[in-house]
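Task card 7
Instruction: Convert sequence to structure tokens.
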Amino acid sequence: MSFLEVLPLVFVMIAGPQILSAIFLATSERWRRNSVAFVGGAAVSITLVVTITYLFSTGTIGQRASNTTLSAIVVVALLLAMVHTYRTRATSKPPRWMGRLETATPRFSFRLGFLLMGFFPTDVLTSVTVGSYLAARNAPWTDAVPFILLTLLVLALPSLTLVAFGERAEAVLPKIRDWMNTNSWIVSEVVILFFIAMSLNNLLG
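Output:
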């Protein structure tokens, strides 16, 4: 997969509670261990989903007609999701578990990374897309490595920023965290737009 193909997929993987969780953990009491555990859990789950999909995909699922129908349904569903997200933006709240992140343990952080990146709907769909894409083209599994590594790198950026910039990052990260927490609906809309663009590409390509 080329960099231009990987980058939008990586953005979809981390946009939303994923990157917000990484920022929260980077500002937690045990941020070093928590961040490493979070990225480790994410690495395990992303690799598992991509690998399982790759191994079990036949490469023949869905011919042109069925692909077109599915893409059209997905576009309509995503448009409805955009409308719903916008209409409920004033009452949208972050998940309850986010309140535990500032006092999280490494064990909790690992489990969170594993579950978020392996079972969150957009992440599952994206990882499955990567695995089936490679299998359908008889490409080696190793072609998924850039996607996995770049996703993990972005998840690690908040903690890496702390390591590189120290006190300056400590002052900026909480502000970014609070903005994303308050404007989570905007992040959701951007993610949905990416999926619409990907679905339209399949529909019109």
